[in-house]
Give the backbone structure.
Amino acid sequence: MRIKQIVEDTSTPAGRIFDAAILILILVSVASFSLETLPGLSSQQMQWLRWVEIITVAIFTIEYTLRVAVATSRRGFIFSFYGLIDLIAILPFYVSFGLDFRSLRAFRLLRVIRVFKLTGYHVAVRRLHDAIMLAKEELLVYLGVSIMLVYVSAVGIYYFEHAVQPDKFLSIFHSLWWAIVTLTTVGYGDVVPITIGGRLFTFFILLIGLGIVAVPSGVLASALSEVRDHEAKAAEQKKRTAGNGTL
């Protein structure tokens, strides 16, 4: 029970110290990963960085094991967002350790995923996660509609521009790149329409793209507001309960 409080309860001094230590280790690990890419490092420096990697992975492995052990639902934690992040953060080390296969060495690049472990220790990020979960149905519908719009846009621009720019709009699949950068209002300008019909079509697609960008922002803003209200009510209820307990 004591270990569970330290690992999961950040309201206790021990829990805050545990979280702070993990945060520092994440930053050390990310910094070590970045330093390894510097040219001209000596073999001794590389060895020191290797030891930092071994030590941090060992501690992260212990942390992950503890979180699984004290979790109310072990399966639920393992397949949760933060559980998967914790696992991916340490898995590349064990996959590539002691192996010389070039393809497996690439897994070590996934160590950068450890920076996402920071999200599990920040209240604002957890609040954003709760908001996404609250609005997930609306966001999924939006995602489906967006995919359909991207495809329709690719089909439309293909028919307008294929005859005059067959090298750039070779097929509907080639036109998907234009559709994505146009609907997201990025507009790299590497592929642009030159026909009157294509330009008019692009004008309407850009208008739709502005809505595509705005819709999820509004949905998330509303969900975040609801999460904040829920937290405020829960905090107020907690204060009232604590006040009644002292009376």
About this structure: Residues 2-121 form a domain with the Four Helix Bundle (Hemerythrin (Met), subunit A) fold (CATH 1.20.120.350). The CA atoms of residues 30 and 112 lie 7 Å apart.
